């Protein structure tokens, strides 16, 4: 019950802030859309007409995932930076629920609340380009959930770093390009890339949405890699976060000073 | 009665960033707080008050020492101990400026695992009590500093814990608001029967609200006593004497040796002399010095001394005050 109240409270806050700062939210979506249009135009003008359709489909999937990754992974970093200076982090840290639970619920709330936006963006891009992708919910749901798990693991790592390292802003800026790399690079470049977070997930999503693979059509090995990544990055992120929390308590970084 | 908070030999040093320097913020502090008590932690800036409070709240890990909260060691069972503790730390920053008054209360309750329904009654009563009812839907960044501080205290109250810690609760408030917040704290303490620990560098605040004070200086406890005892103790010790003439060089020299912190205002008709005695018997030594030259004593008064002067004396180490038993 307490977990549920914690989740509800955080969903509510996320929603209130998106709604209250609607102009910001809209500006963010507009930026996303304009950049997308730019890529779309680029592919049509300079790209090879024979592969244009495939390229556009590819960009749609990657770009939507990139957006999601930024929101989940990078945002928690910014939030914590702000909360550390504003003194709300110390208030959260004094909750008998434990900070990690609050962070986990926040990450989940972010995903849930932004999910609708993601869907809207997806359909907007499909509508704009006239490229209708295969939205096979049965196949996409498990891939999506497992990919989100590894994203949340990354989110924990970034959250931990943001608490311990005060000068993390520069890194957060670069992070969006790292995330772009993880979402845009195809596994076919080098098979080991599949073991990086997110990469395998996006790869499978592409094969469902673009090539029309069904859930049963996904290879067992591919699926196991996805499961392994989800658990691995989630656990690593979680442990890293707890470690950072301990360091922060030693150095007195949880509280404003 | 078992104290609700028991702190033993607490130590903490911070490493300065980059530089190899180490700051010993807290150097072995011990004190206890009884259930239902309002305790003041008093000390100048940099004394180690905030660090002590943060260690009690589990935000900073001590290098050594133990903190028992209702018998729970807050290092072994941090989260369990946090069930008994809530706090407002320095500088009314502990709330979300982009949320409204009500949203803040509800969000923080949620983060402690309570639903909006569960706290609805309590929220309504706190809004009433803290006179924030008309502002409940106002964004926090539009509130005055005083209101923000009141909201931060209300958030801590809503956690419904046995102990509330307030670090410099009146810092940065104007005089009027400071009085309002103090008034509120007094009434909260008596009505809700909470144990309250207040830190401040302002003795006025402590004298106004607290029954007992632990004075900290340079990371150590210098005094632990009831506020009224401190006042009484120092009242007895400070004397103001009117003399019918001037003191001689010899007398001044002896005074300097015996009472190094005396004040002397010479005047051919009526000089005044103020001395603090460490023990009441020392009054005889003073009279001996005056007798030497048969100086006329016109009047002797106990000097009225306020808490601020006591504090300054204690902190500067001018007065050695034994740690009196305070129960
Ligand atoms: N997180 C920190 N990192 C480094 N030094 C700190 C930190 N917090 C406090 N200090 C230092 O420790 C000493 C005690 O500070 P503090 O506990 O805030 O005292 P007070 O609250 O009584 O003013 C000061 O010298 C302060 O500069
Ligand atoms: Mg302080």
From TrEMBL, chain A:
Residues that span the membrane, as ranges: 21-43, 55-73, 104-125, 137-165, 177-198, 218-243
Coiled coil regions, renumbered to chain: none
Top-level taxon in the UniProt lineage: Bacteria
The entry's keywords: Membrane, Transmembrane, Transmembrane helix
Name of this chain's protein: ABC transporter permease
Protein species of origin: Oceanobacillus bengalensis
UniProtKB/TrEMBL annotation, chain B:
Residue span, ABC transporter domain: 5-243
SUPFAM superfamilies for the chain: P-loop containing nucleoside triphosphate hydrolases (SSF52540)
Record has ATP-binding as a keyword: yes
Transmembrane annotation, as ranges: none
Keywords (A to Z) from UniProt: ATP-binding, Nucleotide-binding, Transport
Signal peptide coordinates: none
Gene Ontology terms, MF aspect: ATP binding; ATP hydrolysis activity
ATP-binding among keywords: yes
Gene3D superfamilies recorded: P-loop containing nucleotide triphosphate hydrolases
Family: Belongs to the ABC transporter superfamily.
Name this polypeptide is given: ABC transporter ATP-binding protein
Organism: Oceanobacillus bengalensis
